[in-house]
């Protein structure tokens, strides 16, 4: 797991030396034909995950949610009877809290809203609001359908949630009530299996389940503005005992991200750059 003082010091140095914001602002998603006036969808920008640093990751973590907020790295995991959520203080590298989910709950995505942490469950129809410091449960809310990924857009005052389909659902950050939705399209074609989410500067990053693809999405209209190739991060021998990519955590105040996956032995500090 990420937890040594050395790794923490490196993380703090990256943040201090970083630029003024995360990369990947949405590109224009449509193009108008000057003769017909028809607006055609633009193909997404092609990007790749450029590895800048390789760090250890807990191979027992069936990662479902990954986020950095308030100087804390949060991680949630899945599987019935083995789901948990934990908090690691990035200034000390110390795990400050860990809470297990009792069966039959299957943990999924998480996100932090001020002093609370929301956690969704896969097929249990339950969202849990926790204290962001202690991870103690504060409240439970029921919802319909499955829960996969979750992130917070503070500027829009909403949560964004995925359920494995092509639809992202917007939810009230206080009540978890549904307040809207958008369908995701890439060059006009639907994109489903949207999984772990990360909200950055009004943009949503979503990994496509069972692939090494991360999508950059303009949730104003659901257009995919970037398609990121995150393949080849693990060695073949490592991949043989690991599961799929499923962890995206933006490093605040920088252009960098942490990427990891279910049962992965490593976390990668990356940035998203144009493909050659």
Alpha-carbon distance between the two ends = 32 Å
- The order of strands across the largest sheet is 18-19-20-21-3-24-23-22
Please state roughly what percent of the residues sit in beta strands, choosing from under 5%, 5-15%, 15-25%, 25-35%, 35-45% or over 45%. over 45%
Order of helices and strands: HEEEEEEEEEEEEEEEEEEEEEHEEE
Structure description:
The protein is 6% helix and 50% strand. It starts with a helix and ends with a strand. With 276 residues, the protein is mainly β. Strand 6 and strand 7 (95-100) form a beta hairpin. The protein contains two helices and 24 strands. Residues 1-29 have low confidence and may be disordered.
Descriptive tags:
four-stranded antiparallel β-sheet, mainly beta
What's this entry about, in short?
The protein is 6% helix and 50% strand. The chain has 276 residues and is mainly β.
Topology:
Blueprint: H1 5-17, E1 30-32, E2 39-41, E3 45-56, E4 63-69, E5 72-77, E6 84-89, E7 95-100, E8 107-113, E9 116-121, E10 126-131, E11 137-142, E12 150-153, E13 158-162, E14 167-171, E15 178-183, E16 185-186, E17 189-190, E18 194-200, E19 203-208, E20 213-218, E21 223-229, H2 236-239, E22 245-250, E23 257-261, E24 266-274
Parallel strand pairs: 3-21
Antiparallel strand pairs: 1-2, 3-24, 4-5, 5-6, 6-7, 8-9, 9-10, 10-11, 12-13, 13-14, 14-15, 16-17, 18-19, 19-20, 20-21, 22-23, 23-24
């Amino acid at each position: 797991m990420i937890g040594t003082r050395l790794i923490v010091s490196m993380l703090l140095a990256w943040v201090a030396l970083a630029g003024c914001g995360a990369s990947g602002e949405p590109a224009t998603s449509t193009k108008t034909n000057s003769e017909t006036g028809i607006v055609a969808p633009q193909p997404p920008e092609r990007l790749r995950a450029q590895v800048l640093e390789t760090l250890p990751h807990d191979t027992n973590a069936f990662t479902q949610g990954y986020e950095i907020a308030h100087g804390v790295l949060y991680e949630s995991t899945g599987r019935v009877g083995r789901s948990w959520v934990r908090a690691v203080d990035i200034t000390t590298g110390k795990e400050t809290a860990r809470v297990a989910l009792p069966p039959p709950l299957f943990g999924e995505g998480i996100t932090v809203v001020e002093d609370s942490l929301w956690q969704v469950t896969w097929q249990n129809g339950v969202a849990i609001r926790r204290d962001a410091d202690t991870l103690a449960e504060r409240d439970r809310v029921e919802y319909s359908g499955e829960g996969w990924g979750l992130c917070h857009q503070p500027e829009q005052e909403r949560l964004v949630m995925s359920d494995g389909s092509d639809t992202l659902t917007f939810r009230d950050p206080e009540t978890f009530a549904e307040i809207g939705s958008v369908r995701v399209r890439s060059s006009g074609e639907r994109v489903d299996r949207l999984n772990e989410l990360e909200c950055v500067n009004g943009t949503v990053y979503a990994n496509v389940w069972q692939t090494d693809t991360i999508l950059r999405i303009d949730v104003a209209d659901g257009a995919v503005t970037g398609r990121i190739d995150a393949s080849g991060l693990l060695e073949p021998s490592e991949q043989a005992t690991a599961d799929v990519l499923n962890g995206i955590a933006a490093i605040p105040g920088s252009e960098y991200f942490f990427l990891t996956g279910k049962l992965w032995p490593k976390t990668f500090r990356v940035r998203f750059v144009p493909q050659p």
